[in-house]
Design a protein that fits this description.
It comes from Pseudoalteromonas xiamenensis. InterPro entries: Metallo-B-lactamas, NDM-1-like, RibonucZ/Hydroxyglut_hydro. This is MBL fold metallo-hydrolase. It is a single chain. The chain is 36% helix and 17% strand. With 309 residues, it is of the alpha/beta class. It has two domains: 239 residues, Ribonuclease Z/Hydroxyacylglutathione hydrolase-like (Metallo-beta-lactamase, Chain A), CATH 3.60.15; 67 residues. A hairpin with a 2-residue loop joins strand 3 and strand 4. The longest helix has 22 residues. 46% of the residues are buried.
Amino acid sequence: MSFFVFLSSTFVSASTSPTPLKFSATKVSDNVYSIVAPSYGRPTAENQGWNSNSHFIVTDNGVLVIDTGSSEPIGQAIKSAIQDVTDRPIRWVVNSHSHADHWLGNGAFKSPDVEFISTSLASQTMALDGPIDVKAFKKMTKGATGESTLVYPTSMIDKTHKRQFGNVDVEFYLAQNGHSPGDIYLWLPKQRIAFSGDLLSKNYLPIMTPRGDVPNLITTLKEIEQLAPVSLLAGHGERVPKRALSRDIAFLTAAWKGVKNGLSQAESVESIVKRLQSSLGPKYRAEYQDFDSSIQYLVEMMVEKQHRA
């Protein structure tokens, strides 16, 4: 089942006439820009589905876009923000993973001159979930996201891969399904900039999803940490401080172990939640804005994953 169908089960469909979206890009370095969504969490009527970030790299041979948002209208607004920065053509679109808020905007970029890039597993998951997610997002946003054209990646990266886009070297790394099936992260070795997708964020607990793999997420975060990035650009929220990598590694390791120990002692989920709130709260409550509101969901997801292991 799509992650967003799971999230949208309590919403009721209604029509609305949303105001036109207008985004602006923030400069990260000479040729790297971010379009940062002001809202975090699920798509709603209030945010018109705009809950995730996009980034782009300007090369001497065109623009590389990383993630296209939750809908075709959002994709159009992203495209306009890029055109406010540069008149170079958009030539490549990378989808960091298969969650709909990062790729349903692909339709805005559809052109014979644009290459859509992701992994085989992510693309297969998009094809499975996409038609359902379009309907779910329309329901969640009371019609604001509309009927997005489904455009899937056709260029597949299924192993560590290095490629030159114009004058910019980009490295692609598999995230081993840490957050979702087939997720990847990008690395600019010369500028030491990492594009992490939803593998981490600045102020929020690591995002638990039904199809994610916690031990592999920990391993992937350690790999990114070894790269020693100067800038970390995430799928949600503001630019991520480098210390967030060690923070998330430590938190996930402690929480995963705590859940495992609790299950081995036949402890109830409610008891595990209370114990981890007590033991981890003093250290991490100030680190994660949603610690108390999201710890139960995180524990429930970890319990489910350990039962399946």
